[in-house]
Structures are given as structure tokens and as C-alpha cells.
Write a structure and sequence with these properties.
This protein is α+β, with helices and mostly antiparallel strands. The chain has two domains: 11-105, no CATH class; 113-320, no CATH class. The chain is built from eight helices and 15 strands. The strands form two sheets. Strands 4, 5, 6, 7, 8, 9, 10, 11, 12, 13, 14 and 15 form a twelve-stranded antiparallel beta sheet that branches. The relative contact order is 0.17.
Length: 333
Amino acid sequence: MHKNYPQVFSKEWFEKYQVFLLWLANTRYGRDILHINGNRSLVGKNRIIKIEPHAITWTPDGKVLQTEFRTHNKFGKRLFYSYKEFWKMLHWFDMHFANKYCPRMNLGFDTLTVYPEAGAGGVNVTCDGYVYRGEVDETFSTIRDGAGSGSSDTSVSVVACYIKGSSTSNQWSYLMRGVFSFNTSSLGSNAIISAATLSLYFYGKNNNVGDIDCHIAEAHPTDPADLAAGDYSNISRTSFASKSYSDVTINQYTDFNLNSSGKNNINKTGVSSFSTQSQWDINNDTTGLTWSSGAYSRFVGNPADYDGTDKDPKLVITYQEGAPFVPKVMFIG
């Protein structure tokens, strides 16, 4: 997706409201709003039978099905930008009425969910990937504090935490850190954040040199849309949340509930970047780390470059819109 926007319009949201969306998409008004044009825009001839954030399916003759796929969530974006003020009103309803007095009436607009963008550079403002120092033979303190030697932000895997033993006793050949950036600018400067959860979908974990923990901390890449080797050092060491090795179940999301420092790291008018580091890395403490030649401990998961968003890294923010500051004019007689 080329540009982030509030992801309440997820695949699950489209499925929940499919009947209404199909009715809308099969009207002239709806096709104008969703920018469904060309031959498939002919109401009554090409009936749309399925709509997703990034795709529509129609039948031109009642027998053959045709599906158009987009590289970004075009139809979700069109819904958001066409009715932006309406969605903001629903957000106010959820935050100030439903959540306080009648939770069953919650409409699902009390959170902002954002994902990193697939790919890197170009028109992107965010990305995800990993940075590392590797192909070395160094003590832990040297590999931890040294300069980065490489990065990846277009792989179909993202290494959240990784350390590998070299062939020399008690020395290490690779140390990796994950970096995840999210466009959170739609919050606005007056937003009051009450909770934030960063979720990662891990599909692999290993503990051959010790039970590895995963910590969330700040990252400040030079370009949050295009990682570079130098971003290996562009991280902070304050932990926002952590999960132990046993806390992580592969092939499902692991949720990291951010503490106050993590919530403060969210940029309400720009891009928010986070790093993932092992407990040995973030604490500079090798307790529980046992060297073995060629062995490694790691967490590895799905990035935004993986098809769809159902396994993408995601940041879910619960917030309310604060009142803007209005200066008072005082007249003193």
C-alpha cells in the first residue's frame, strides 16, 4: 500500500459489512465514490459480487467471474477519504458514549490501526525490516556497539531479534535488530492516547544459545521508508514492552502492550518508529547467553511485504481527540 490511512477498513471490516458495501458498489453514487470506472462501472450490466479493501469481483454475464486486484487498499482508502468527517463523528461516539455507557453499541471506530508499507523508498513514508552487524568474529560488547554492516527492508521475512555464535569460543558472527515504522499522522496533535499495542506475527523461534526475549524500543532511522546499515545504531535502549521466549507462540500474533514511554514514542503528526532487540542487546547483559559455534537464537516473522495484511506488523492505538488549545484574551482596565 502506498500510503497509510486508518485501518479500521480492514479485510475483517469489509467482510462484516459486505452486504451494505455491495449495495453501495452497485449504485452509480457508490461507483463514483469508490472510483470504479471503465466497463465495470456499468450499473445493471457488470454486477459487483464481492468487494475487499484491495480488490473487486464482478460478473459481466452472470457466469464468468472477473477480479481486479490493486497493489494498495484502494477501496478502503476511498471510503475513508470520502467520508472522513463522518468517521471522526463515529470515533467520538465510540470514545465518549459507547465505551463509557453502552459497550455493545461500540461501532469499532475508537482505535487507529496502522501497518508499515510494503517495499521501500519511492512514494512510501514507512517500511519494516532489519539491520545488522555480521560476518564478523567479535566479543558481544564489540558486535553490540559496532557499526552496522547491512540492512533489509524488502524481504518476505523480518528478523526481529537474532544472535549467532562464530567459530571462535565466546565470540559472535551476527547480531540483528528489527525496525518497524508506522504513519500515525492521522491522529492529530490533540489526540490523547490511552493505550497502544504493537503486534508481530512470528512464524519461527530458536533458542540454541539461550532463551531469547524480544523487547520493543525506540528506533529513529535516517529515512523511515528506506533502512540503511547505519540505522543499526539509530536505536534507543529503553524498553517499551517485552515477551519472553515461552510467551511467544509461533504462527499467531504476539501482542506487545506499550508502556507510557512507548505511548510517548508515538508521533501524532508524523511517523512512529520502533525497534526490536533481545534482552542481551537492550540490557548489555549476557546472562543466559551461552556460546556455541554456528548456533543461534532468534525470532523471525512476517513483514508488510508478505501478501495481504492479516499477518503484517501492526500498531493499534486507542485514543480520543483532545480539545485544541484556544488562547484567552484578557482585557485589563
